[in-house]
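seq as requested:
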Amino acid sequence: NEALARLAEEDPTFRVKVDEATGQTILWGMGELHLEILIERMRREFRVEANVGKPRVAYKETVTRTGRAEVVFDRMLAGKPQYARVVLEVAPAADGESSRFVNLLRPQDLAAEYVEAVRAGALESLENGFLAGYPMVGVEIRLVDAEADESISSEIAFKAAAAQAFRQAVEAATPVLLEPIMDVEVVVPEGFLGEVLGDLNARGADIRAMEPRAGGAQAIRAYVALARMFGYATDLRSLTQGRGTFTMELHHYEPVDSRQMEAIVYGYSA
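struct tokens:
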């Protein structure tokens, strides 16, 4: 709606997406507090009331090794026969972040419009990952072989074949979920240091540094999974009688463990 569009224009870190399967509007932000502020602005400035669910982590997906798949698309569409054969490989990208499409065919092997259809079908498939529908990152997609029948082939057939081949290749490439790891700084009075450290350790924090601050305070730097930081503002106030503060920003993504991945994937499929 207009309110969400206006907010997205003003804040490039805020994104809006409609889940086609459920019809829900998904809001993407930089953290729990960021989303709370935006929702409050919707209510205050635009008079928009919304039923808001619990925040969820914006996971990503990637592959850990090379996978290959061949798909032959040979069926009737709108009463006309359609044919395309596509062989794709997927592999971890060199930089681990950017995804790209690489055409390994010679110009005479496949018409340029069919190569473009394969590219579009594969790259669009990155938006909805194999495991739990999260965007895929760090994937190199290679077109290694293809075949057309000029009498019945079409761009639609090649795009559909590429999308199917991509998913099958990803399945063979041992996909994993990646979770956001936050760089967290907590500043607390010395007397509350033990309780706050204990709480961070219970959240699986990787304590990186501690340093004194003015007024007898201590600053704690740690890496913590975003999934373990929901509700932290309230918990920190309780632990420090309202005298502790914290900031956090995204530092990197790393694979989740197998048990956590199983729970996330099960929740998605359910």
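The CA atoms of residues 21 and 133 lie 11 Å apart.
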